[in-house]
Specification:
By secondary structure, the protein is α+β, with helices and mostly antiparallel strands. It is built from five helices and five strands. The protein has a five-stranded mixed β-sheet with strand order 1-2-3-4-5. Helix 2 runs antiparallel to helix 3.
Length: 152
Amino acid sequence: MAEQSTTGVPVDLVALVTALPEDGGHLPGEVVAHDAHALGHAALLLADRGVLLAGDMLSDRLIPMLDPRRPGQVQAYAEALDRLEEAARRVDVVVPGHGSVARGAGVGERFAADRAYLDALRRGEEPDDARLLEQDWLAGPHRSNQQQAAAR
């Protein structure tokens, strides 16, 4: 399935993970907790390896997905981006849960794209975001984001 749904991703790396300790022991990095996307969402900073595992944020394929059940998500997402950007200053690679890995200038582009999207929502404008044009199914989550932004 990975070969059919992605391009440019080395398939031998798909689902290559190391299990967390069963005893709940030490994590192999620093948890960057925040209130964006979903309740209990977080990223994992592996500073010694130069990697930030961003969870369901910083995708080059998906727009920011706000939790429609929780108020204040536009602001919470912006604050989460601030926390993740601080963490990203300590790494070379950002790995989102969806989309491709970002390196170098690509990391800053991810933050800029998500901030521009959120800024357009705050202004009540339609964002100029290629991700919305590339995948028409994002229209539903985008409408939900717009409604949430308008309700604040």
